[in-house]
Every structure is written in C-alpha cells, then in structure tokens.
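hi! just following up on the protien thing from before. the input was this:
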Amino acid sequence: MSMLKKFFTSLLGSLAAIWISIGILFLLGIFTVSVVIASAFKSTSMDAVNDNSILYINLATTISEENPSVDFTSLVYEQNLENVTLLRPLLSSIALAADDPNIKGIFIDAGMVSGGSSAIYEVAQALTDFRNKSGKWVIAYGDEINQGSYIISSGASELVLNPVGMVDVHGLSSNITFYTGLFEKLGIQVQVVKVGTFKSAVEPYILKDISPANRQQIEAYMGAIWEKFVSHMSHSRGLSEKEINAYADSLIMTFSPERLVETGLVDKLMYRHEVEDHLKSLVGLSNDKKLPLVSQERYYESKRNELSVSSKNGIAVLYAVGEISQSGNSGIASDRLVPIILDLAKDDQIKGMVLRVNSPGGSAFASEQIWEALQTFKKTGKTLYVSMGNYAASGGYYISCGADKIFTSPVTLTGSIGIFGLLPNIKGLLTNHLGITFGTVSTNQNGDFPSLTEPMTPFQAASMQNMINRGYETFVGRVAEGRGMSVDSVKQIAEGRVWAGVTAVDLGLADEIGDLEATIDALVKELGLDDYKIQYYPEAKTSLWDIFRSLKQEIRTAAMKGVMGDNAYEFYEKTRRLKEMDAVQCRMEEVKIEF
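and the predicted 3d structure came back as:
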C-alpha cells in the first residue's frame, strides 16, 4: 500500500513539475514576445532636424498602404518590420518638407522598390510636386535601379548611377497561372456560373490560356497605365515618349553606365562617397563633416505633433485594404468594418469620411453589407468621399460606388462590375484516383447541395445562374444609383471589365484624378471647414494572442509542407480557398503587374 502511495505521490509530483515547467515556459514566452514586440514597435530616437537637413528616402523597400501582419517568425527574426514603407507617411513627409525651411533638399536611395502601380505613381508625382512647389533639389542615387525605382527617381534634379551600376526599364507585364490542366489530371472539376464576358477571375480554373476578351482588357488597362508612366518619365527626363518606349524595348539593363548617360536616362556616374560629398557641398559643408540626413520615417515622427490639431470637426479616413470577406482577422471583413462605419455615423464630431479603398473585391454578400453601412453613414447628412489606391475593383468598386465623390489614381485598376460563383467537384480525384466512393441519402432532391462529390444537376446549375444574375442586377443597380447613370449605361461598361483609373473617369465610374491628400482636401473644402482633425481607422492593433495564433498556423503550415512538398501545398491552398469562398463572389482576377 505504501509503495502504491509512493507511486501516486511520485506521479502527481512529476505531473505537477511538468505543469509548473509549462507555466514557467509560457510566462517566459509571453515575456520574450512582449520584449520583442516592444522593441519592434517602439519609437526610434529622433534625428535632430536642424537648419541644414536633407530628407532621406530609401527605396530599397516595399511601399504599402498598411503595416504587414506581425507573426511570431517575423518578430523573432525581425523580418518584414524594417522593409516596409507606409505610403501615407511617405507622401506626408515629402509634402511637409516642401514648406520646411530646415529641409534643403531630398536624397533618394534608388534601390529595388516594390509596390502597386498607384503607390509608385503617387510617390513619383509627390516628388515632382515637391520640386515645383519648393524649388528645392532632389538628388537620386542608385547602384541597381529597378523600373519602379526609376519611375520615382526620374523626376530628380540629378539622377546619379554607380559607375558599374544598372538601370532597368522594360515595360509592364502580367502573368496568370492556369490550374485547369492539373485539375484534369487529378480529376477535379470546377463548375462556374457567372455574368460578364470579361469576368476573368474564373479563367484559371476552366481554361488553359488567356481568353481573347481577357487579353483585350488586360492590354487596354496595362497600356493605359504604362502610358502614364511613360509620360512621367518623358517629361522628367526631357526625352520623347517614343524614345522611352524604344529604350524599354532594348533591354537597357544590359547597357553600359556610360551609354545610359549618353542617352539621357541618367545624368552622371559617381560612387556613393562621391555623391555624399556632393550633397555636403549643396548644403555648404566640408567633406569632413557628417552628412545631415534625416530619414523619412524619423522626419514624419518628428512632425506628428505639428500634424495633430485640436478641433471638434473630425474627418475620418477609413482604410479598406485587402480581400473582402464576411469575417476574419485579415483583409476587409464586413463584421469588423461595418460596426466602425456605423459608429462613425453616430459620432457627432465626425463631419465627413474618406474611404481609402485598395481591394480586388471578394464576397458579394460582405460587399453589400459594407455598401449598406456606408449608405447609413450618408443618411445622417455626412459626406462620403472615396480615394482609390492600387485596386478598387469588383467588390472594391461595389463598396465605392455609392460615395458622393470618387477620386482615383490614373493607374488604379477599377470597375470589374460582375459576379461569379465557383463550385469545385472533386469526385474524380477521390473515386478515380484514391478509390473513395460515396453513398448519399437525402429527404429531398437537393438535400446534399452544394456537394463537393457530385456535379450540379441542370436544375441546380440553372438555379445558381438565376442567383448570380440577381446579384449582378443588384450590383449594376447600386452603381447606377450611386453614379447617377442609367442601368443600360452601366451595363455597357460592366460585364466584369477592368479599367484603368484614367479611363474610369472618362466613363463616369470615377469623378476626378487625385490621391488621398487631394481627396481629403476636396472633402474639407466641400464641408467648408476652417479647422479640422484627421482621424484614421481602423486602429492598428496586434495582440499577444494574435502572435501565438500565428505560431500555431506556422507550425501547421511547416508540417504540411514537409509532408506534401511546396508545390503540392500551393495546390492544396488554392483548392482550400476555393472551398472556403462564399458562393457568390465580386472579385477581379488575380493580377500582379510586374515592374
């Protein structure tokens, strides 16, 4: 008996020790992650902005509308925290520097920038505006200057290249991956119901190449976007548009640096230390003095107090960034965004709102909920403007179309007024390849609909098409109402077709060309406000539990990749997303314009 007692005592003691150890490790983990979070997000010490400073902009970065999601790996290894530049603070810094007597000019480190078309264009225009407004100089220097960085830097007073450096200007391209051949081999059928000849988001699952209609629209909107970039580079460099296009066709990345100077694509060749000495001479410093650079991020932080205004007149800037869904922790989730909109509608200090949209769309149901919440906001008598970013297409346009006024970048992708539904059928994979069969018992004819293991019957397909048609008519009606157009007029430019922002203005889908700041300025003028404060929503929050949840997902992903391999996992993720999508989608095709 005593031995049994000793056994249980020892067992309970061991269990207690294990749980205490787990608790200690858990608390230690919380402490460690908290320290990492604090160090990652703490304010960096300010560089003093003296009366002889140079604003420093580093383009070895990704220009983004929002901070990247913070996960466990990125915190531990400090990934994705330093290499993202937020668009709004960058544009604000450039605008503030124009009026700041302490800032003598701007130095651009022309690295390998990445970002959407609108972000690249807006930064390039901001630098041109800076020079025109202030008369100050902008010096850009690069070792390897990619196309996006060149577009931005082309407007500099002097564009300097390393004597053994490289410049790349080659035009735009877009690659679409088609999964149909793989699905056929695996015995997977994707059943499509849609409205819109140009609604091409479904093509990767049912075709093996770009359809003629989709090729036509891609060529049209990419051509319009490239034309705006060429116009900017042409004006900035004093070269004709024909010359810019000729160089883009000539693989200038293979040109010698000397030839780049001869063509006028760059101004001079210098090593970095020579550029630094040149900058010192521009601000009257000897070469042995420290170069008075103030990073854009630190400059913005130093100016935040000046930007903070005490006023009872609030202008809300609400960001709608990412894919649209009904719920979730990322993208535009209607269950998170709608309450914010309704709260702003009730807030007496909020006089108007700018909705900043950067979205290719998503769930049709969620898009409608957001649209309705925005109409509720307007019914309170408050004014709603929309500012379009890189994308405001399909569901992104759905939530935009009811605004009092829409501003767009000329290179925004918008429109895509169309609806579709995807229903995968994996019976061929399970039965023909894996030998799995199914037996179904239902009380009614459509008791198992929708099914992943049976194709739609003609009745089910017709019923789904009717639902998609109804959704399309609702979408078109929302656009017609919001834009003051007839339904027939909207249908002539709908059919799922994607348009560049500059074309969207001509078609009446948007009102004016302008960035976020121009949209805010126009709203303030419309409201006749002498004083106001800008409040940004939603508030960026990262909880400790979000970090631990991300760790769980990372472990799961790593384990599945270990078993399946990277290629198979990518296919699995694509199939999983298809399964989890809402039945009715307002989404444009997955397009990444390569710079």
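The radius of gyration is 28 Å.
The chain is about 50% helix and 20% strand.
cheers
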